[in-house]
Amino acid sequence: MTTRPDRALEVGLSAADPRSVAGRKALPAMMLIGVDPHKSTHTATAVAPETNRDLGSVRIEATVAEYERMLQWAAHWPQRQWAIENAAGMGRHLATWLLARGEHVVDVSPRSTARVRQLSPGAGRKNDRIDAAAAAGVAALQGEARPVHHDEVTDALALLDERRINLSQARVWAANQLHALLRALLPGGAPRELSAAKAERLLATVNPVGVAERTRHQQANELIAELRTCDAKLKNNAREMAELVADTGSTLAHTPGIGAVTAARLLAHTGRASRFRTAAAFANYAGTAPIEIASADKTRHRLSRRGNRQLNAALHTVALTQIRQPSSRGHTYYQAKIAEGKTPREARRCLKRRLADHVWRTMINDEKRQSRAAGPGGHSGATRISSAAGSTPTASSSDQSLPRPASTEPTTPQPTT
């Protein structure tokens, strides 16, 4: 049974109504198909952008065969655009599948669709069909949808970054357990900075006596082997990251404090920098833009807890590295903020905000250079050769000056590749 959509979406003919065949003759050139994805089912609703009328809906299971059925249903509208709610989360697989088949897909945040429901006369009524139509409505009317691009390199970097986090956590766990065992086997325990080779040398000085000591000695040897395994995997992970970053032609690694691993994390959690209209939008996404608080006597700012925390952590690492490098511009900027009377924590936050601007400008310049290298209608496909041949965006003194204010200019539209 099909549920009646919200009145604000102006119900039209359903896909099952025979009169819809005649109605399709007057359909607009571009049709918006909103999708409300769930783990086991997806609901798609076709909405005419000019009238915001619901022209049909279909509910499918989350299987490839059902994806094909939904695409056949959408074939009634040759000119179409898919608006998927949370395309980076629950709708990621469907969005990737549609992009691989040449479909145009935009992402709509759940917060935007919820706002459409709350502002409608239906008092915020919610079901899958309403959510799907609301996603299409946001894409058509509110302009809050953003294009989804299938970037295999970015996906690969995200996978490698997640794997690195898991390997690092496993190594920390093994090192903590090894410390506990060595504390029971050696007087005074082991030093804080413990490598597999150092632990093995310390363990060689122990002559276990008794069942308990022999068991500790055996477990310590197993943990040393685990440390070596984690170290080898982390080394291979860093090498793969460096190769992929070089293939993208990114110049982020030219910035002091940004190595191959940090550059990979920045690229993995940013995607296409051109999807952020300004540097301020990127800083807000990274959680480095302070939040203004209005009080009775004055206006002050507080730390933002929002945004992508992995991206925020990467910028934090770059800031700490530059603060420790007296020759870097970040160190100079940090010391200038300290001289102004800011606390070390406040000065560090200011530096992270400027670094966010610098990283965004660098990514934007890289995209522009890759687009020029690809030519009209070409594919970017940046390589090490194209990276070396192009100009270095961070070479100018103005771009490397981190105290530079945030850019308010919108992103230059990129040619469709």
Q: Could you describe the 3D structure shown?
A:
This protein is of the alpha/beta class. It is about 50% helix and about 10% strand. The chain contains 15 helices and eight strands. The strands form two sheets. The protein has a six-stranded mixed β-sheet with strand order 3-2-1-4-5-6. It comes from Haloactinomyces albus. InterPro entries: Transp_IS110-like_N (IPR002525), Transpos_IS110 (IPR047650), Transposase_20 (IPR003346). It holds the Pfam family DEDD_Tnp_IS110.
Provide the fold topology:
Blueprint: H1 20-23, E1 31-37, E2 41-48, E3 53-61, H2 64-74, E4 80-85, H3 92-100, E5 105-108, H4 110-118, H5 128-142, E6 146-147, H6 152-185, H7 196-204, H8 211-248, H9 260-270, H10 279-286, E7 291-294, E8 299-302, H11 309-323, H12 329-339, H13 344-374, H14 384-389, H15 397-400
Parallel strand pairs: 1-4, 4-5
Antiparallel strand pairs: 1-2, 2-3, 5-6, 7-8
